[in-house]
Amino acid sequence: MRILVVEDDPRILADVRTALVAAGYLVETESDGEEAWFLGDTEDYAAVILDLGLPGMDGLSVLKRWRANGRTMPILVLTARGSWTERVEGIDAGADDYLPKPYQMDELLARLRAILRRSGGVASPVISRGEVVLDTRQMRVTKQGVPVPLSPQEYRLVSYLMHHMDRVIGQQELAEHLQAEHYERESNAVEVLVGRVRRKLGTGFVETRRGFGYVVES
Ligand code: CA
Fold it and tell me: Are residues 115 and 139 in the same domain?
């Protein structure tokens, strides 16, 4: 899952990046509001963590412009402590959730997991499909109750497909959520990864729709 973190305090930004990377996400960061707006408008993110007080363009304007342009990615807004007016404005502008500063990193991670689940129409942190169970809190996949060792990329693939069950997802979209920034994108990288996941979770787990992409059916 590719997450954009927009925050102008370098210390907070570094802490959030470290925590998200440790939790298995692909992280891109931006500290300027206008640059962030451009990224969110043109790139595909599974979710955005957005601070409101930003140089360039304030976070609320960034949020409003994304929503006005039809960008629907889930957004977790970070607000100053006690600023209930900011929270109300943020939610009215289309934020999916907010977190007042200072916050515990575990709470930020839990809220991020929740908005990702909701955006995929999934209500529980544990998603199952047949004998395969994905536990997003433990970042673990089991088959018939037995943990299946997956590489970080394999885990991301399984997680993304299971968060969007029954939706056919194209190679391009998958590649964007699987590979790190500046990673050399090989044309068959997704295919190879799908092959490895099938060997571990069963050939029928991921289906290929020729010319369209891949799908995990519920
Ligand atoms: Ca700020």
Answer: no
Same domain, 136 and 76: no
Whole-number Å distance, alpha carbon 191 to ligand 1 midpoint, is: 40
What pLDDT, in 10s, does the model give residues 45-94?
Answer: 999 999 999 999 999 999 999 999 889 899 999 987 667 888 888 888 89
105 alpha carbon – ligand 1 mean position (Å): 17
CA of 140 to the centre of ligand 1 (A): 34
Look at residues 140, 114, 123, 103 and name the one whose alpha carbon lies nearest to residue 15.
103
Phi, psi of 2 (to 5 degrees): -100, 120
Same-domain status, 101 and 13:
yes
Residues 21 and 105 in one domain: yes
Q: 12 lies in which domain range?
A: 2-119
Average the pLDDT over each of 10-14, 72-76, 88-92, 159-163 and give the range with the smallest value. Answer: 88-92
CA 21/CA 133 separation, integer angstroms: 22
Residue with tokens 């959730």: 97
- Residue 55 CA to ligand 1 centre (angstroms): 8
pTM of the prediction? 0.76
Q: Are residues 46 and 65 in the same domain?
A: yes
